[in-house]
Specification:
213 residues; Rossmann fold; Arc Repressor Mutant, subunit A; elongated
Length: 213
């Protein structure tokens, strides 16, 4: 599988800043896209399937400011790592940004080496997020392949119940439980109940309510 190149998105209302950052980041070997406002960025907000990415974001902008954009992105399923840049920063503002998950908070004029180090850290985190999301998407896809009855059996298997106990609870034959259980293990590509439990936990599958037998 071809490795997806990471992208750095730059959002700043100062054209000279976006132009200078684009030139710097391209010379460092990064794919770069620039936006003049938070609203413009939101209109073209990339899908996580596009690969790992980070955001270099100005704080003080007309309309939606940087901190407000950060809050909006936190509410999405894929909030890319952010490096803040500002000419009007203060300690409370930087503390709030970092607490909300920003990688760094740099005051203009910032040192180019510090910026590139922050971007490298942000993209490293983005690669981890991207890899984990792809893994989780694959897991969810496997669970979606189950029939309703197989899914039901799954929720009982992960409680640790035996086939005969599941059969008694659902009023079906033990042989039927065994067949469905085998199909579940095959479709989810696991070899043990322990693996099945771990996979279900990753997918946030809730176990069935076990009756008193």
């Amino acid at each position: 599988m071809q490795k997806e190149e990471p992208t750095v998105y730059v959002v700043d209302d100062d054209p000279s800043v976006t132009k200078g950052l684009a030139r710097l980041l391209k010379s460092a070997g990064y794919e770069v896209q620039t936006f003049a406002s938070a609203r413009e960025f939101l209109q073209e907000y990339p899908s996580p399937s596009h690969g790992p990415a980070c955001l270099v974001l100005d704080v003080m902008m007309p309309g939606i400011n940087g901190l407000e954009l950060q809050e909006r992105l936190q509410m999405t399923q894929y909030a890319m790592p952010i490096v803040f840049i500002t000419g009007h920063g203060d300690i409370p503002m930087s503390v709030k940004a970092i607490k909300t998950g920003a990688i760094n908070f740099l005051t203009k004029p910032f040192d180019e080496v510090n910026l590139l180090e922050a971007i490298e850290e942000a993209l490293h985190r983005a690669e981890i997020i991207h890899r984990e999301k792809n893994e989780l998407d694959g897991i969810h896809s496997r669970f979606k392949s189950l029939t309703p009855r197989e899914y039901e059996i799954l929720t009982y298997v992960i409680t640790g119940m035996l086939n005969k106990q599941i059969a008694y609870t659902l009023d079906i034959s033990e042989k039927t439980v065994k067949v469905h259980r085998g199909r579940v293990m095959e479709k989810l590509r696991v070899d043990s109940v322990a693996e099945l439990v771990r996979l279900a936990d990753k997918a946030n599958i809730q176990p069935a309510q076990v009756p008193d037998l």
